[in-house]
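As agreed, record copied across for absentees:
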Amino acid sequence: MALQWEQLVVDAADHAELGRWWARALGWVVVTDNDEEFEIRPEPHRLPGILFTPVADEKTVKNRLHLDLRPDDQEREVARLVALGARHVDIGQRDEPWIVLADPEGNEFCVLGPRRS
C-alpha cells in the first residue's frame, strides 16, 4: 500500500490571514483561497501542503503537534519571523538550542539552531 503525506491541517480563527502569514514566513505559494480553506505549498504541485480551515473556537492550550524549522542563520530568521508578527513564547524549554515562537494565532513552532555533526 502506498501512502503519501498530503498536508497538515491547521484550525484558525482567520484561516486566510493565518495562511497568508505562513506563506510569507515559509516563502510558499497559495494554491487554494476560499471561505472554507486556504492552502499553501512549497510549489504549486509539490506536497505536502498546509491547509488552514476556519473554526469558531480559539486556541487554549499548547499545541500537541508543531513545526520545527531549521534556517541557515537562526538569529536572523527569528528576527525576520518576529518582524512578520511571530512572538517569543516560553513553554518551559530552558536552555535548549532552539527558540520557540508562536504565529499570530498563538500556534507554537521551533526555530532550530545549526545541525549538529
